[in-house]
Structure formats: structure tokens, C-alpha cells
Design brief:
The complex is a heterodimer of chains A (249) and B (327). Chain A has nine helices and eleven strands. Chain A is of the alpha/beta class and 249 residues long. Chain A has a single domain, classed as Rossmann fold, CATH 3.40.50. Chain B is globular, with a radius of gyration of 20 Å. Classes of the chains: A alpha/beta (249), B mainly alpha (327). Chains A and B meet through helix 2 and strand 5 of A and helix 10 and helix 11 of B. Chain B: InterPro entries: ABC_BtuC-like, ABC_transptr_permease_BtuC.
Amino acid sequence: MSLLTLDGIGVTLRGRRVLSDVSLTVGPQELVGLLGANGSGKTTLLRAALGLVPHEGLSSLAALPPSARARAAAWMPQGRAVAWPVAVEEVVALGRMPHGDGRTETGRAAVDHALTRLGLDPFRRRAATRLSGGETARVLLARALAQDAPLLLADEPMAGLDPAHQIAVMRLLRDLAREGRGIVVSMHDLALAARYCTRLIVLSGGGVTADGPPEEILTPDLLRDAFGLEAQIVDTPHGPLLDAHGVAP
Amino acid sequence: MRALALGLCGLVAALFAVSLTVGPAEIGPGESLRALVMGDAGPLTLVMREIRLPRALLAALVGGGLGLAGAAMQGYLRNPLADPGLIGVSASAALGAVLAIQTGVAAAVWIGLPAMALIGAALGVGLVLMLAGQHGGSLTLILAGIAVSALAGALTALVLNLSPNPFAASEIVFWTMGSLADRSMSHLWLALPLVVAGAAVLLRLGPALDALTLGEDAAASLGVRVERLRLSLVAGTALIVGGTTAVAGAIGFVGLVIPHILRPLVGARPARLLWASALGGAALILAADIAVRVVVPERDLKLGVLTALVGAPVFLHLIWRSRRLEA
């Protein structure tokens, strides 16, 4: 069973070809790290998959009507702005909107669960505009989690988090995948990606240049070609480690 | 939340009763309310039913509509400085009314002025939608509104400039200040369906505006149809602002100040702010319309002048307070 199927996705933004012919599927229990240099089209691919940008090709999500899509996939965009000083628990409760049960027992339980999983219980009643950048990111991730969709798409959820919280978020995502969800997360930290993701997809030159388990695809050649890095992946007792020692000429 | 709702409802009801009992005819409140309800063929019943009742009802309707439209507009644009006049409807409605006064249509039939104002509002909103398009973002909508407002304002100034008749010119100037004096039940029946229809559209946008707190992308992923939301917002606001401007002239600051004052009391949630601002707006205009009759009864103080006079300092105070909180 697949949670997301992309077939021949191509996107042209303002006359510039950003992506062409991207095809992939994501199933349950997968934690997919979407990698690529700045401007390689990670955000655009995720938005096209959700039908938020005009695109060619087929996306199983974009084909759904908006209300059904909201129950099929949760989306945490890169934008972190919360417009009004709404209480944190109310922001998280917005995730129940597709289910229409924000005020019922089940809805509240899902909100409480999401708040607890992201360690946000002490912030429940704080205005979401009075949090630090990293705290806001966790609130928004909790919001996506409360949506309780089988697929979670997150655009750089780790940006602005301190190292401990980055690891905490990756562990949470790994646990969510093990519980049966499919997760696609765009990210820049290759070491975290190598350690926690079950699969990596590397974008460069407007298409997928590598797709597979981290240990197979993160070769020195790929690190040089797609990321401009002189680096290698080293195995340690705690898992793979990225040893980056230079920038490719 | 219930306390706030009850408090605002009580305030509106109390101000409504006071509004009914204030006027140049010196009659006790009990007597005048009895004349209104019981009714006889006497002059007091006539005064109550034909002069004060429409005035009080219009005040509640205009204030409620503008408060609601302001809350919806601020929610959609995610900006506490947004105002229902932003989309150019009030300026274009004013242009229609000014043309009606200038051409003498307003003097010929009572419906001439409101009808021309409504035509102006419809043309204005049509132009805004044409400029902002089906797919434009909120910034395009603001810019289109500013452009239409500027155009309508320039044309209004042109009419005044070329007006050969000083009486018409002064009537125009006074009309644009906004007032509820000497309105009849006919004015109410004209504005009521428009404002009610607009309110029905805007009050349903609550959940979508809540979701928009997280931005258009997140809202869309929660199932909000952002383009339909924008269209509903513009249509609802245009119905309310067009309807109220046609019967009461341009009354500023209600749609700006009321949502701003009430936002902290509803936990900043855009959906709750909608009904709260409708009640708050009704209370403000009822109070202002009582004030213009009580403060200087011998002079015809205009409602819009008073709301601006009270609204601007309140707004300055709010800005000052929020600046202190941010520091």
C-alpha cells in the first residue's frame, strides 16, 4: 500500500524549470529524508505533491479534494509565522480541523498526545507568538501531528532547533514511522539523515539523482556531485557519521 | 467566553434602549417606550416608530456590520491594521452617492442616493476583483483596493472641484462625514438584506480564518480553499460596506478599532473575533449616535466625525501600549 504516489511530476515556476519527471512512491513505516542543496526543489516537490503549486504529472494527494487530502496527509510548511497571539494548545487544535472534532473527547485526546510528544505541556496556555523560533517549530510540528494523518510531510522541521531538540525530533519522526506512518522530511543535516532515515531521496539538477537506504546512496561520489562536499560516511558504534573535510572544487 | 458574549449583548441592548429614549422631543423613557410598543395614532408613537426606532436599528446594523467586516478583513490579511474600507468599496460607494447629490437625483427621490451608492460599490468591487483576479494573493487584493480607493477619491474630488453649486458641494462634504440622522424605515429595509447577506457569508468563514493563522500554505493543507475564502471575504465585505455606506455614509474607525480592542478578550482567535466584533461594533455606533445627540444637540455633529475623534486616540493608546509590551 502506498501513501503517496508521484508520477512524472514537473514544475515550472515563473518560466524557470524547477523539477522535471519526478516519480516516486512512499509507503507506511518509511522515514524518507528529502535532501538536496539550496534551490534544488525540495520545497517545490513537497508542495507539488500536495497540489499547492501548478504542476504536470500525477500526484495521488493532489488528485484528492481538499478535505479528503487534509485527512490523508499533514503538511508542516517552512513558514513559521503565527499571525495572532493564540494559545499554543489552540494552535495545535487547528490540526483537528479536517476531522471537525476539535471540541470533542477524541480531538482533545489527539491534541494532548501531540503536545506531550513534543514536550510542550509547560507551554500549553502561552501565546504562540511569544515563543522562541525553536519552540514555535515544535508547536507547528505538534499541530501537524495532531492532524493524525497516515502521511506527514515536513519542510525543514529541524531548522532553528538546538542539537538536542534536532535529535529529539528525528527520534520522534522515527518512532512515528515505526508506528506505521509514512514520513517525508526535507532536511540539510546529512548526519542526522544518515542516522535516522530509512530512505533518502536526493534532488539535484531538477530531478532525483539518488533514492535508497542511506548507507547505499551516501557515497563519496554523490556527496561531491550533489552537495559539493569532500566527505565520507563513517560507521561508528552509534550509527553512521558524516566526516566532511572539505568543499569540492 | 460566555461572559463576554452576555456582556456585549447586554451592552448592545442597554444602548439600544437609551438610543430609543434620546431625542429633541423631551419625553420620559418609560412613556416613550410605552408609546413605541403599545402604539396609538398619537404623535409620540409616530416619533418613536418613524424616527427613533429606525435610527437605533440602523445604528446597531451599521455598527455590527462594520465591526464584523473589520474582524474578517484583519483575519484574512493577518494584519491588525486592516480595515473594511481597504478593498475600495466605501470610497466607490461614496463616489456614487456624491454623483447622486451633484446631479440632483438624491433630491428627487429618497432612494436615488443609496441606489447610486450601491451601484458605485458594485462597480468598485467588480474592479477590485478584476484587478486582484481569481488567483492573486492577499497583497494583490490590498493593492487593488488602494488603487480603486484612490481612483474613487480622485473622482469624488473632481466632482467637488467642478461643482457649480456651493449648496451641493457642502451637502456632499457633510454626507461624506456619515450620519444616521433623519433616516427612515425605508433606509433600514434597503440596508438590512445586504448587511444580513454579507454577515451570513462572513460568519461562516470562522474556521478558515482560524486556520489562516498559520499561513496560506498550512491552511490549504488543512482543507481550506484559499481562493474561495478570498472571494467570500470580498463579497461579504462589499455587501456590508456597500449597504451601510449607502444609508449612513462613510463611518470610519469602527472596523479598525473594535476588533483591535476585543482581540485579547477572545484569546486572539479570528473565528471568535467575528461575532464579538459584530456586537462590539453595534455597541460603539449606538453609543456614538447617542453621543452626537446628547453632547451638542443644537449642532448637527456628524457620526463619522465622532467615531474618528474617539477612535483615533483609542487607537493611538493601543499602539502605545503594544509598543511598551514589545519593548
